[in-house]
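Posting this for the archive.
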Amino acid sequence: MKGGRTKFAILSLLRLGPLSGAEIKDYCQSRFGQFWSESYGQIYPALNLLCEQGLIRKLEDDEIGKSKKYEILDTGRTFLREWVETPSSDRLVRDELILKMFSASMVAPETLLSEIESALSKNAENMAKIEFGIATLREMNAAKSDAGYWALILRSGQLMASARQAWLEEVLAHVQARAKN
């Protein structure tokens, strides 16, 4: 599929209002970061493709000021709606730490400790971002229909981060016990 799933992330955000490529990247990090990421190298080509396909348009300079902003068109809303109505593909998880655990017996346990502690710290930061997102959502003036779904997305992130925290604590305890032997 030309443009991959990036185009759906962009259309999902543009349905809320005009945004620049940088604002889309910021939203992806701050709002979607728990479950989706996009790079500038993915966003800008997808914006160009969406314009070529007539799904969005670049606003004229006199409409927006300095930064180039894009807005979704009716054809883009229809395209997005049709995608939302189709079944999702299977979830693919790529977690390098889990892959490393598969071969962890090859190295001394002490080698893994700092990486596990770093993962615990990053997960704690992730959990704090989710809590901030939950608090922000309560303060937002989002449409009630959107807010309910967004709360469910944050809850998913909260549950996954809690499960990861528990798993990381188990891994840490296991590796620490092996280091003592």
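The CA atoms of residues 39 and 84 lie 22 Å apart. The first helix runs from residue 6 to 14.
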